[in-house]
């Protein structure tokens, strides 16, 4: 065997500066393996370096630059959210019931069509029961069904047979129904437990009662309007209220035929004659404004001799007369006419405006 020169022995260069001769050739029995290339570099012939095999069950090293196992721990995060064991099946069951889906789903470990699965409805009921059996809200609904069953059946029969053209009777019956139903925790949920409950007629009854109550409130307000000086403030309030109700009454005039037909379908003959009453009372209010304006004008004329003319011009009574006339004309257009009193007052008011010496 040839000896290998010790790495500690210095190698001397030749006298002409040429590199030292190569080391003596080693025998074929012992060969020196070249050092592995750095990570990411190829061998001279372009082939990739071989990765040494890993032991069975060993974890591979992290890629360069990721910081090793320390960064792997940062990927995991704690959360209070958990997967539900029944939400997926519950969704598919509900989807099949509502949309009629025919998607195959697994029920109790077997495949079957949702629409045809014998246990589909029962599975949904069981899932819903599991979600709500401890709810105090649903427990209260069950108690309402049990405790108010007799009164609900009584109301059901009363609504089904109710019919009227008397609006006072309508309001009275409406109060009777509400006095029973207002005791329920959730009216919709409770009434759904009673077969063939007339919910649509109940809705029509409420709409009719609410509409008539609103119109009746308008008539009460107009009928009890306080008339008093100064007429300027009276006009301010009257015009403001008129502007408020005019749009609502006009809209109801356009839809009253359709509303009447809908109410009649539930044996409720709504009395839309109350709209005429509203218009009549509005004309009365405008007439009262004209009367007060004329009275204040005459009182002002009686004081003319004691007042300076230029001071009177700052607050001319005829401006109020014209404003009263304008309001009366708007009410006339809204109501579609005037009564005898309003007709007389508008003529009188027009004469005063035309003959006023300060015009």
UniProtKB/TrEMBL annotation:
The keyword Coiled coil applies. Residues 1-71 are annotated as: Disordered. This is Hydroxyproline-rich glycoprotein family protein. Residues 1-15 have a biased composition (Polar residues). It comes from Dorcoceras hygrometricum. Keywords: Coiled coil. Residues 235-262 form a coiled coil.
């Amino acid at each position: 065997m040839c000896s290998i020169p010790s790495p500690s022995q210095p190698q001397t260069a030749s006298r002409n500066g040429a590199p030292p001769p190569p080391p003596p050739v080693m025998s074929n029995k012992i060969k020196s393996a070249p050092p592995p290339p750095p990570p990411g570099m190829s061998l001279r012939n372009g082939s990739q370096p071989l990765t040494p095999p890993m032991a069975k069950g060993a974890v591979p090293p992290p890629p360069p630059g990721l910081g090793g196992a320390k960064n792997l721990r940062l990927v995991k995060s704690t959360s209070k959210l958990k997967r539900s064991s029944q939400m997926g099946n519950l969704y598919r069951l509900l989807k099949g019931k509502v949309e009629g889906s025919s998607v195959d789903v697994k029920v109790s470990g077997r495949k079957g069509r949702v629409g045809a699965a014998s246990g589909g409805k029962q599975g949904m009921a069981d899932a819903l029961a599991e979600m709500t059996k401890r709810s105090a809200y649903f427990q209260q609904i069950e108690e309402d069904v049990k405790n108010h069953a007799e009164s609900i059946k009584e109301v059901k029969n009363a609504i089904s047979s109710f019919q009227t053209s008397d609006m006072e009777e309508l309001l009275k019956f409406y109060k009777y129904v509400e006095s029973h139903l207002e005791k329920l925790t959730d009216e919709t949920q409770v009434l759904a437990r009673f077969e063939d409950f007339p919910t649509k007629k109940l809705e029509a009854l409420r709409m009719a009662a609410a509409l008539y109550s609103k119109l009746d409130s308008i008539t009460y307000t107009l009928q009890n309007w306080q008339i008093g000086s100064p007429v300027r403030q009276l006009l301010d309030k009257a015009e403001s209220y008129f502007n408020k109700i005019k749009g609502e009454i006009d809209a109801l005039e356009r839809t009253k035929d359709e509303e009447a037909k809908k109410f009649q379908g539930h044996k409720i003959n709504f009395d839309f004659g109350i709209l005429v009453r509203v218009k009549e009372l509005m004309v009365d209010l405008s007439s009262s404004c004209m009367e007060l304006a004329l009275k204040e004008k005459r009182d002002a004329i009686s004081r003319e001799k004691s007042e300076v003319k230029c001071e009177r011009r700052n607050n001319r009574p005829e401006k109020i007369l014209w404003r009263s006339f304008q309001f009366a004309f708007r009410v006339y257009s809204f109501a579609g006419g005037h009564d005898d009193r309003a007709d007389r007052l508008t003529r009188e008011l027009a004469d005063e405006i035309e003959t006023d010496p300060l015009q």
